[in-house]
């Protein structure tokens, strides 16, 4: 009996360097607890060249210079609510890379009402406008500037970080829940237009509660993260795991995923109750 062995080479070259040859902008890296920080490190590991950006005030508070040195990335300060700053960011990035950008991470969020302890039923509306502008409208502005400048390559990828409070009530998440709802809507709407015109895909990742500087500022965070751990069959996804997911969405392995809100939460979003929670609160 003759045996014929046929070797078929996959048309997609698989390697550990999922982002080899790609360029990207990473916003929101404050310190080594930031998800954006982990994403930047992992993008670099997978062969991408990146530009780092954050608001000037956040840069003074954080440690972004250390990250920039570690991954050999320039820093372009930009207030994400300023269209002029965003134009400078994309222009500077394209000049640095010598061409268009392949991926963008939007990891931006801030609520003065949360920081200053205003209850949701008694918001300061000027602060509320700030919350929406910084945490959601900034994504629209970023995408609008990129669109007008034709700054993102065809089949590029944009990812914004969100949270399940956009769909379900988490009382202490306050007006950030409204901002995340708007953020997800912008991703869907702009995802349609950018996808139709340039094949650029836009998605949001709804991440587990994660120990970051921003997340830890939410009232009752420690108690909630423990509850979420018990409610998630796989446990909470940490920042490193989220970075892996972002890299997958930036890579060519996910070219036809767009306009999605993707839950990266260990199963929390589809769990009604777990045995661990029943045993914890049972009499």
Which terms would index this structure?
10 helices, globular, 283 residues, 6-stranded parallel beta sheet, Rossmann fold, single chain, 13% strand, 43% helix, alpha/beta, 6 strands
Characterise the protein shown here.
Helix 1 (35-45) crosses helix 9 (239-250) and helix 4 (83-97) packs parallel to helix 6 (125-149). This protein has 283 residues and is an alpha/beta fold. The protein has a six-stranded parallel beta sheet, with helices on both faces. Mean pLDDT is 92; it is low at 6-14. It has a single domain (23-281), classed as Rossmann fold. Helix content is 43%, strand content 13%. It has helices at 35-45, 56-61, 64-71, 83-97, 112-115, 125-149, 176-198, 221-231, 239-250, 275-281, and strands at 23-27, 49-53, 101-106, 152-162, 201-207, 261-264.
SSE layout:
Blueprint: E1 23-27, H1 35-45, E2 49-53, H2 56-61, H3 64-71, H4 83-97, E3 101-106, H5 112-115, H6 125-149, E4 152-162, H7 176-198, E5 201-207, H8 221-231, H9 239-250, E6 261-264, H10 275-281
Please sum up the structure shown.
It is built from ten helices and six strands, in the order E-H-E-H-H-H-E-H-H-E-H-E-H-H-E-H.
